[in-house]
Amino acid sequence: MSMSDEQMSDDPGMERSRELLRRHQEHTTRRPRTFTALRKEWDVFPGVFSPEFTPVTAMFTAWLPYPPGGSFLEVGCGTGVTAVWAALRGCRRVVAVDINRAAVENTRANARRHGVADRLTAVHSDLFAALPPDAAFDVVFWNSNYVEPPAGFPLDTMLHHAFFDPGYAAHQRFLAEAPTRLTPGGRLLLGFSDVGNHEHLRELCDTYGLTLSTLRSEVRELHTTVEFQLLELTPARRRR
Questions:
Q1: Which of 147, 206, 209, 212 is 20 to 30 A from 29, alpha carbon to alpha carbon?
Q2: Cβ-contact 42, 113 below 8 angstroms
C-alpha cells in the first residue's frame, strides 16, 4: 500500500526524492538518451538514476580522492559516471556494482564510450554480495540512498532503491561489511546529505566502530535547500 502525499509532505527529504523520482518517471523512454556532466556526454538507460536531474553525482565525482594507479570500488554505480571518472583519473582497477541490472549495462556502455572498459568491471550485485570474498580496494565509495522513508513505504521499482532506504537496512549492511573491503590504508567514503538521517547513521557508525568525519560539503538551492556532504568513515583500528 502506497503512502499518501499528506503522510510524506512534512519531510523535506521525502519531498525532494519524490520530485526527483517524478522527473525520472516522466522522462522514461524505451531508448537510451544522453546527458552532459563534467563536460562529457553520457548515456542514460531507461530505469536508471540519472545525474541530469541533480548536481549530486557530478559534485561528489569532482570531490573524490582517486588513488593514481590504485583500485576503486563504486557501490550503486547508476550510469557509471563516478566509476568511469575514477578510471579516467588514473585508477588502475575500477569495479562498479549496482542492484539494478540496467545500471550495470549502462555503466558498461559509458565505460566503452569513454575508452576505459579495459580497466572497469561492472557487476550486478546487492552491495558486496557478488564480489569475491577477498576483493579489497584503496577507495570504496557509495553515493547512498540516504532518505529514510516512513514505515511501510514500498520500494515499487528499481528507481525507488536509488532514493530510499527503509529502516536504513542497506546502510547497516554497508557499514558492517565495507571496512573488510579496504586495503591497508584504504579509505571508506559516503555521499550523504542533511536530508538523510544523521542520527541513525551515527548510531550505526558507533555500532560498527567507525569514526564519522566530513571531508567536504556544499549547500544548493534545489526543490528545497540541501547540503550535500562527502563523509569519511574510519575504522576503529585506525584511530589514533
A1: 147
A2: yes
